[in-house]
Design goal:
By secondary structure, this protein is mostly helical. The strands form two sheets. It has a two-stranded antiparallel sheet with strand order 1-2. Strand 1 and strand 2 form a beta hairpin.
């Protein structure tokens, strides 16, 4: 599957945003439950900086609430049972952001399309750009590539870009290895028992 550079960046942003949600965090061992990766304004600034989101300006509680809402709506797209439902969710998300497609070549990147207005809020920026990246996946008939990790103690989202759509874990090194080692130890214990 050939994915343009800007679409890939937007898909990575969607995944990272979704993985800030408390339900995507591993248990913290304190009994208090997992924390929100966007626990405050500072975390939102960090997220924007990490993903090179331009034109952010001054962020406040209203922005934080709006980005958390967009994050929840992206999670609904990943959980959609079929392409029609996913398409409807993406259409509503992108329309609410007031898309304004523009060609741009900023920050050393070649020409690409921004789907948000130059003065858009960070939530509208994410909804429009990342929503259009999800639209690309749906149009390509690849909605099943929008997944959650199958490890029982992990809720991370990921986009399966493997050739045969066979990826099951957010990280084969972390979750995949851990489960394979646990299965191996269980087989050895059973064989020895």
């Amino acid at each position: 599957m050939l994915i343009p550079h800007d679409t890939r960046i937007a898909l990575d942003t969607v995944v990272d945003l979704m993985n800030t949600a408390p339900e995507s965090q591993p248990p913290d061992g304190t009994g208090d439950g997992p924390e929100d990766g966007l626990a405050g304004i500072a975390a939102l600034y960090d997220f924007a900086e990490r993903h090179l989101i331009s034109g952010v300006g001054t962020l406040g509680e209203k922005d934080l609430t709006a980005v958390r809402d967009v994050r929840a709506r992206f999670a609904e797209v990943f959980a959609a049972p079929d392409p029609r439902t996913a398409a409807d969710l993406v259409n509503r998300l992108v329309a609410a952001a007031g898309t304004t497609p523009q060609l741009t070549d900023h920050d050393g990147y070649d020409w690409h399309v921004h789907y948000f207005a130059p003065d858009a809020s960070i939530a509208d920026h994410l909804a429009a750009d990342c929503g259009m990246a999800l639209a690309f996946i749906i149009v390509a008939g690849e909605q099943e590539r929008l997944r959650r990790c199958e490890a029982p103690d992990c809720g991370h989202a990921f986009v399966d870009l493997s050739r045969n759509r066979s990826r099951r874990y957010c990280s084969s090194r972390k979750c995949g290895n851990r489960l394979h080692v646990a299965a191996y130890r269980a087989r050895r214990k059973e064989a020895a028992g």
